[in-house]
Amino acid sequence: MFDVKKMIDEVVAKKEVTNLAFAGCGGSLACFYHPFYYVQRESDKLTTNYVTANEFVHDTPKTIGEHSIVVVASRRGNTAETVEAARVAKAKGATTVGLAYEHDTELESVVDYTIHFRDGEGVPFTESKGAYALMIAVELVNHTDHNANYEKMVQAMKKMDEIVPAAKKAIVPEAIKFSIDYKDDKVIYTMGSGTAWGAAQQQTICIFMEMQWINSSVIHTGEFFHGPFEITDPDTAYLLLKSTGKTKEVDERAIRFISAYNHHLTVIDGSKYGMDQLGEVSEYFDGLFYSAMLDVYNDLLAAMRNHPLSKRKYMWKYNY
User: Fold this and answer.
1) 167 assigned to some structural domain
2) Does 138 lie in the same domain as 185?
3) Which of 131, 148, 229, 244 has the most C-beta neighbours closer than 10 Å?
4) Are residues 140 and 184 in the same domain?
5) How far is CA 280 from the centre of its chain?
């Protein structure tokens, strides 16, 4: 297991860090929403950025420089835009950290530090890509702000190793129902707030659109009543990931409205599956928890639709 604390200690011993930035593409960007959110809410010393990699390359935030740590991610370590984003960050003097599953990749040859994450059955949550990304933020914020929530975050991270596998088993009946009820939908809207919005975004672009060819859009529950709720009819398909933290009421308002005018809403509620055990810091783990639960949902939905998650029309087949 990679020692994130040791890495942050090494970096801050060499230079003052005033900026923590995240860049990636698709799911490797979505997993960064949680640490980005954490820094925004917990630090008054650090600036932070959350930028898709190709935009980072062509329109780099002004905050990026010698006082930055820039974290990038690419599962295979060869996403061209992400590798280039790391090069741009290094050229500006930033310390670069790369998250990758594969070893000996192009990304690894560019960045200053490489963290090899793991996934799949039996792998602890603490060794996942999202967990490592969040811990980078937790350790740096603790260094700059002496954060009061630090020990709670460290303990919650360990607790997630127990919560996630238990929840993935317990949630199977709900996931089966979802796969049956939604298998024929041509459009599915995902919804969320807080860090759960990041998981909703990933579900929309990486699963429904990329892997299942289902039209989808992500809607922040706080924005729902400022335009999107007009598309609600009895059969509109919604999937809502409910916050366990301070934005819970934002989600509950949307749930009340949809429930009154619609009969095709699925709500995944982490508080039913152990997230309440994390106390006041649970909201920072919501998105990562829901991404793990959606692994169960997506495998079942793909099987029910006879559309494997590996099926593509364009990706990896054409030059783009």
Assistant:
1) no
2) no
3) 244
4) no
5) 19
Q: Walk along the chain (320 residues) and give the pLDDT tens digit of each residue.
A: 999 999 999 999 999 999 999 999 999 999 999 999 999 999 999 999 999 999 999 999 999 999 999 999 999 999 999 999 999 999 999 999 999 999 999 999 999 999 999 988 889 999 999 999 999 999 999 999 999 999 999 999 999 999 999 999 999 999 999 999 999 999 999 999 999 999 999 999 999 999 999 999 999 999 999 999 999 999 999 999 999 999 999 999 999 999 999 999 999 999 999 999 999 999 999 999 999 999 999 999 999 999 999 999 998 888 88
The parent domain of residue 239 ranges over: 173-305
Task: Using alpha carbons, list the distances in angstroms from residue 78 to 37, 57, 128, 202, 210.
Answer: 26, 15, 19, 20, 19
Angle at CA of residue 251, ends 166 and 282, nearest 5°: 40
Q: 217 and 131 in one domain?
A: no
**Contact (CB, 8 A) for 97 and 111:** yes
Domain co-membership, 92 together with 9: yes
On whether residue 205 sits in a domain, the answer given is: yes
**Position 286 in a domain:** yes
Residues 188 and 122 in one domain: no
